[in-house]
UniProtKB/TrEMBL annotation, chain A:
Pfam families per record: Gluconate_2-dh3
Keyword terms of this UniProt record: Signal
Signal peptide from the UniProt entry: 1-25
Species for this entry: Neorhizobium alkalisoli
Name of the protein in its database record: Gluconate 2-dehydrogenase gamma chain
UniProtKB/TrEMBL annotation, chain B:
GO molecular function, one term: flavin adenine dinucleotide binding
Domain Glucose-methanol-choline oxidoreductase C-terminal: residue ranges: 446-568
The protein, known as: Gluconate 2-dehydrogenase alpha chain
Residue ranges occupied by any Glucose-methanol-choline oxidoreductase N-terminal domain in the UniProt entry: 233-344
Source superkingdom: Bacteria
Family matches, as PANTHER family: LONG-CHAIN-ALCOHOL OXIDASE
Stored InterPro entries: FAD/NAD-bd_sf, GMC_OxRdtase_N, GMC_OxRtase_C
Record flagged with keyword Nucleotide-binding: no
Pfam families attached to this UniProt entry: GMC_oxred_C (PF05199), GMC_oxred_N (PF00732)
Coiled coil regions, renumbered to chain: none
Keywords noted in UniProt: FAD, Flavoprotein, Oxidoreductase
Family, as annotated: Belongs to the GMC oxidoreductase family.
Key word rRNA-binding present: no
């Protein structure tokens, strides 16, 4: 440790004799001996059987199911989004850190037009949960204004027409909801629910993974890498036991 | 109350790859080192074991290992006459948010730059004449590849890099990259195996007369004990690599390679969940006396130290220099000032295609699992009749088959929803394959970094502002490289190609594929054009060293990590071999 003495040339008053160690900051000396999982990295399974936390209104669930089951209908490739648990998935996601927008930068100044021009697409300072709250209301209002019925009562063909119009930016929703971008949010979340680990409430019975042939949470393909171009027919596995 | 900490010889700001390498070298040399990291302690068995890691939604989609924008973001604009906007949501950027930094969640592509990358100004002038570089702000690094070789070697030994040498001491080796700079010896571990697509890409490019080789990888191919005595395990090709930790101790990372040795050294202290706000200079401004920090609980404190090392990732390195008043802000109008100068990126494109009646099994993957040709990288080909300098690596990759990430990788014209999407994804998931074009990025006068006048972070400090768009040289380069890549895909038999040339539209962080942000605190032999000397020491405040890809004056057609690691080894050795014995500038300005 002699080298330290050589470094004392920068002036005297740098150190203080009161060597107070920090009360709160985590100071680590030595290799941490803890072997239990860090609490914030433990798996966070979706609550089961506890009912809906965000979509507490039946009509909201009906609108969502009507949209999601056109985005991912039941057919010969597999179950529909709602059959696969995508509503429960989204409810759980919106109830937590994703729905709260905890990762997002939400500070002002908020300049929506400039931000859209600079970034090539709009940025939102509402959380995903708020965007669903506003978006579902807007869909319901749109259906009542154009068709005179509740959204969930629309025919599958009419819902497809509305979804296509939103996707192509041809339909504007009321109350300032950006229809094209609300469509993108719903499409993203519906397919997340269909393809994420069943841990999160969707992809029930690993239907989404079986559809495309993804083997799931497997962790060792060394026995298979040299079987090139072959249909390996691997059964998928999940991070939680089959529910 | 302000926390006053005991003085350290060295304080390290940010404990990712660069900070870990520096801390390891300096503590081994006997110096008393304190590292300050704003993220939490994370380790393999406690945070990403195999029962936690293969979770696409959590780690890839929600990016829970990455630094959230609510902690700190950057602002962005294409041109100086625009008002920058903050990046509010996840984008191409992938900043680290834990002990280990981005070195925990990176993919592991473990490149050395070519000799040309380090001397791009001189070599371009000598080979093609000064006019070739018109409009570019080229400058040499002040260090050559030959000088870097021992440090590259050291970092690869620590990381356990898998690969196959193409040039050992000037002798070209079969199977390796014949264009690479001479290496002193073979890689620490042998190359990874080929997937179906890698073999197809390899054979197609060989038929075309190119020189394919297995990518050097930080997903190591067999068990390995590194020079620090740390044991790594073999990669299992699980396909949950980039954005994820590694549950097998087989991805090169501070956790797998350095921290087990470093943390046990009595002269090392680590403060986690504590953020360095800025360095504090002595009254004469010639040296720094330590750093001001704030804990997770909001308590401020001061860490005195004789040497301040900033290893906070490229963007934050530049920001911390500006917040600390170390060096002068670059002004694109006058060309004066050096901090913020020569920001570059990575010029990228993709060519995707499909193989009917084949199973590409994309879920068999690794972050760096790929075959590449370097025939069109750097200055490996004659640019005499071309309207650009630089080039790109062209790789056929097998990084992952994560189903959410790939849900739009469909044959052209496919719908993204309805039964039509289900049918398309069922058909295409197991038939897709991709080429990634990872190109050089050349500095220009008006691509730079400074502090944003409007937007602030959670502590009230200004965010960093990026002004950047593609320049003509890089656009011309990528057009040429995209055509070469399409030819290879066609030769390989890929059908229904989807070609994306990223430089055809204005740059913005939501549209890009690469997380490689480069420059802004660049190294060089001339203090009027570089913030740091060739040992990454500030020209202005000699006890401050700034280590990261922020030091690259231009970007090579490669991932930056191994060059960052090699520069860190070199800077650390200069500190403990020379600087501590005679503190002052290591190079005359």
């Amino acid at each position: 440790m002699k080298r330290r003495d050589l470094l004392r040339s920068f002036g005297a008053a740098m150190t203080t004799s009161a060597l107070v160690s920090p009360a709160a900051a985590a100071e680590l000396k030595g290799f941490p001996e803890q072997t239990a999982m860090s609490a914030d990295h433990l798996p966070r399974p979706a609550m089961k059987g506890g009912g809906f936390q965000v979509f507490t209104q039946e009509n909201d669930r009906k609108i969502l199911a009507a949209v999601f089951d056109r985005l991912i209908p039941s057919d010969k490739f597999g179950p529909s989004a709602s059959e696969a648990g995508c509503l429960e998935f989204l409810d759980d996601q919106l109830a937590g850190r994703y729905g709260e927008g905890r990762a997002l930068y939400l500070e002002g100044p908020v300049r929506p037009e400039n931000e859209e021009a600079i970034m090539g697409s709009p940025q939102f300072t509402q959380t995903p949960r708020q965007r669903y709250e506003d978006g579902l209301k807007a869909l319901e209002a749109y259906a009542k204004a154009t068709d005179g019925v509740a959204f969930h009562a629309l025919s599958p063909g009419r819902i497809d027409e509305i979804l296509s119009g939103l996707e192509e930016g041809k339909i504007e929703l009321p109350n300032g909801v950006k229809g094209k971008w609300f469509f993108e949010l719903m499409l993203q979340n519906a397919r997340e629910g269909y393809l994420a680990d069943p841990l999160y409430g969707g992809n029930r019975d690993m239907a989404g993974w079986k559809m495309i042939g993804f083997p799931g949470a497997r962790y060792d393909y060394r026995p298979y890498i040299e079987r090139q171009g072959e249909n390996l027919k691997l059964e998928p596995v999940s991070l939680i036991p089959k529910d | 109350m302000t926390i006053e900490r005991p003085k350290a010889d060295v304080v390290i700001c940010g404990l990712g790859w660069a900070g870990s390498v520096m801390a390891e070298e300096l503590t081994r040399a006997g110096l008393n080192v304190t590292a300050i990291e704003r993220g939490a302690w994370r380790d393999t068995s406690t945070d990403f074991p195999p029962a936690v890691d293969p979770d696409e939604l959590r780690w890839t989609t929600r990016r829970e290992l990455l630094q959230p924008m609510s902690v700190e973001t950057t602002t962005f604009r294409n041109r100086m006459d625009q008002t920058a906007a903050p990046v509010r949501n996840w984008s191409a950027y992938q900043f680290g948010w834990n002990v280990g930094g981005a070195g925990t969640h990176w993919a592991g592509m473990s490149w050395r730059f070519t000799p040309w990358d380090f001397e791009v100004a001189t070599q371009t002038r000598e080979r093609y004449g000064a006019a070739k570089a018109e409009g570019l702000q080229l400058q040499d690094w002040g260090v050559t590849y030959a000088e870097m070789e021992p440090y590259y070697d050291r970092f690869e030994r620590i990381a356990g890099t898998s690969g196959i040498a193409g040039n050992i001491n000037g002798e070209i080796k079969p199977g390796g990259n014949p264009f690479e700079g001479p290496r002193a010896r073979e890689y620490p571990t042998p190359p990874l195996k080929d997937t179906f697509w890698m073999r197809e890409f390899r054979e197609a490019s060989e038929r075309m007369g190119y020189h394919p080789f297995t990518l050097p990888a930080g997903n190591i191919s067999q068990a390995y004990v590194n020079p620090l005595g740390v044991t790594m395990g073999p990669c299992t090709y699980c396909g949950f690599c980039d954005f994820h930790g590694c549950g097998n101790f087989s991805k090169s990372s501070p956790q797998a390679c350095i921290l087990p040795a470093l943390m046990r050294r009595p002269n090392f202290t680590l403060l986690t969940e504590t953020e360095v706000l800025h360095a504090v200079k002595h009254d004469d401004g010639k040296t720094a006396k330590g750093v001001k920090f704030i804990t997770k609980e909001g308590e401020e404190g001061f860490q005195p130290a004789d040497i301040v090392i900033i290893t906070a990732y490229q963007m934050d390195n530049v920001r911390l220099m500006l917040l600390s008043g170390i060096g002068e802000q670059y002004d694109p109008a006058t060309g004066k000032g050096t901090v913020g100068r020569n920001y570059t990126y990575q010029t990228c494109g993709t060519v995707n295609a499909f193989f009917s009646d084949k199973y590409t099994n994309p879920f068999i993957g690794g972050g760096a699992l790929a075959v590449q040709i370097d025939d069109f990288n750097g200055d490996n080909f004659d640019h005499g009749n071309l309207d650009f300098i630089g080039g790109a690596g062209i790789m056929g990759y097998s990084t992952n088959g994560r189903p959410i990430q790939n849900m739009n990788n469909l044959r052209p014209g496919s719908k993204r929803w309805g039964s039509a999407w289900k049918e398309a994804y069922t058909r295409d998931y197991n038939q897709g394959a991709g080429i990634f074009i990872q190109g050089t990025s050349m500095p220009v006068r008006d691509a730079y970094l400074d502090l944003d006048p409007d937007y602030r972070d959670r502590h009230g400090q200004p965010l960093l502002r990026l002004t950047f768009d593609w320049n003509r040289n890089d656009q011309n380069m990528l057009r040429y490289l995209t055509d070469r890549s399409v030819e290879i895909m066609r030769e390989a038999g890929g059908e229904d190609m989807i070609v994306e040339n990223q430089a055809e539209e204005s740059w913005n962080p939501y549209k890009q594929h690469s997380s490689h942000t480069i420059g802004g605190a660049v190294m060089g032999a001339d203090p009027t054009t570089s913030a740091l000397n060739p040992f990454l020491q500030s020209w202005d405040v000699h006890n401050v060293f700034v280590v990261g890809a922020s030091a690259f004056p231009n970007n090579g057609g490669y991932n930056p990590t191994v060059t960052v690691g090699a520069l860190a080894v070199r800077a650390a050795q200069a500190i403990h071999q020379t600087y501590v014995n005679n503190p002052g500038p290591l190079v005359k300005g």
